[in-house]
Amino acid sequence: MKIYFAGSIRGGRNDAETYSKIINHLKKYGQVLTEHVGSKELTDSGEPIPDEDVYTRDMALLKGADVLVAEVSTPSLGVGYEIAKAEEWGKSILCLYKKLENGKKLSTIMEGNKDLIVKEYVNLDEAFQYIDDFFS
Amino acid sequence: MKIYFAGSIRGGRNDAETYSKIINHLKKYGQVLTEHVGSKELTDSGEPIPDEDVYTRDMALLKGADVLVAEVSTPSLGVGYEIAKAEEWGKSILCLYKKLENGKKLSTIMEGNKDLIVKEYVNLDEAFQYIDDFFS
Fold first, then answer.
1. Smallest CA–CA separation between A105 and chain B, in Å?
2. For residue B112, what is the nearest residue in chain A, using CA coordinates?
3. Burial profile A31-53: b = 16 or more Cβ within 10 angstroms, e = fewer
4. What is the ipTM for the molecules in this complex?
5. 3-state DSSP call for residue A52?
6. Which residues pair with A120 in a beta bridge?
7. Distance separating the N- and C-terminal Cα atoms of chain A
8. pLDDT, position A75
9. Residues near B117 by beta carbon (within 8 Å), at least 6 away in sequence
10. What tens digit of pLDDT does each residue of A76-119 get?
11. Residue pair B77/A75 in contact by the 8 Å Cβ criterion
12. What is the pTM of this model?
């Protein structure tokens, strides 16, 4: 099982530790193709290689993946783009987000798209449970 | 000419006034299908109709549009998603963003995708010039 994990990079790294823990849990189910997304060393400057190379690499990885798991608590253009691409390419998709603060709501485009599995979690154990359900 | 304008809603409304001014400029070139995105009344709660209805309406509007113009300064899952859908459906796409503060960089997925026209502007006159070039 090849798993593409998507999380915010230049949109902000507030949830990087969460990404790392989710990636560790995903490894129970297969190979995570984008483990660097959870790295503490990765800042919101992005990777030290040309953007075009990152785009080309990421699209090839996503195309070759079996599933997309996206953590969508931090708004991100790239993650939104990857979700649509994964849909276009017929991948199974799981979107997870932490209960947002101050009554904020998740993107209408995510919540309103009934082809996506979108789950709100209050703690990581709950997120892991949604992942277990997704792969079962 | 049918123009789909995309900007952040639940991702944050900091740029709502900019959206409104860009939409006004776009009207020189055709019908803007999503004029509400620039409305002062629209908050980050979104529209007072079910998310599923918004998603279905917006996807139909985007599919029927000739071009997508996206203001991408504020990271947004929905805008990223719409850019990928517009690409899938063969639309011409123009992405505009204000020179970001604190050395922040635009999404790698946007900058690295050479099929998109992505332009950074320092003031609205420059943004309008990019729009004029796009439609000329």
1. 6
2. A52
3. ebbbbebbeeebebebeeeebee
4. 0.96
5. helix
6. A97
7. 13
8. 95
9. B93, B94, B95, B134
10. 999 999 999 999 999 999 999 998 887 889 999 999 999 999 99
11. yes
12. 0.97
